[in-house]
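[retry 2/3] TatD related DNase: previous attempt timed out, resubmitting with same input.
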Amino acid sequence: MPWRLAAALLPLELCQMRLFDAHFHPQRLASAAARETLQRAQESAVVAGAGCGCCPEDWHQLQQLAREFPDFLVPSFGVHPWWARDDGGPWLPELRRLLLEHPHAGVGECGLDGGKKKEIPMQVQQEVMERQLSLAVELQRPVSLHCVAAHGAMLEALRKSFGASHAPGLVLHSYCGSPEMVPAFARLNCYFSFSASILHIPKHAAALRAVPEERLLIETDSPDQLPRALRGKQPEGGQELLNEPQFLPLVLEGAASIRQVPAARLAELTFDNAERVFRRFAELSEKSGRATSASAACDGLRAEGLFVDLTRVRCGRGLCPSSAEAKNCN
Ligand SMILES: [Zn+2]
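[retry 2/3] TatD related DNase: success.
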């Protein structure tokens, strides 16, 4: 059945916000599943997201999805450190071509992963990242960065590539560095994006508390990092649940409680921050108008179970055959 997460799990006000998913990977799913995921995201409080490529082999699929979902998907193209090879970067011309073809696309996901240094030497990871950072300087694009157990080396590499700062912005995705390193990264114009890991890793929650509000972003990192509240769950007749952008309100809710601020405030400021980094998104949200509100995600769905059959949507007056109709039914 077509389904989405019921609002029963979420306070009503969370469903009525407009959220931006600062890091996810739709192209990692088979194309039909990716399309369904993006359609469900569009039915939720998440109005857009940054889809990040991982390797040359997935750029085409990402580009295709970005063409099909131009109002939702802001693409970035890059080589993730897990795919870094000591091959001299034969993919560089294609990366440049894609970035020129998509003037609003970012660079990434690229970065450093100390946890993988046995399989992929740090030297190789570093070279692959630096090639991409040079392109980001040349074309003045934001960069989505992966950094695990290598924050000192990352800081050094960013200073080497960007000097004092990178004006288009840098996004440290699923930030897992120390709270103490936040100011040094912030000076380079880094934004700090937090995933569901804040809900169960105290160090990540501590870093979240240390980030100035004008540098905060939230993300799902889907299809990875399914929030624990949803593990082992599955929609009726569906397959094992993977993470997807529509679950972003769970991250927002957790982040708001860790920072002890109203979720509405956090939604608004992470949305504003995303507009500063992702120019394509800023244009879109200008076009669609910030004042329009309530997503279709929640109207009258609170009494349902964890998942909602989208062929029957409870609305203000009863049951509507589609969420589009339910939206106009209050
Ligand atoms: Zn990622």
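[retry 2/3] TatD related DNase: The longest strand covers residues 106-113.
[retry 2/3] clearing retry counter.
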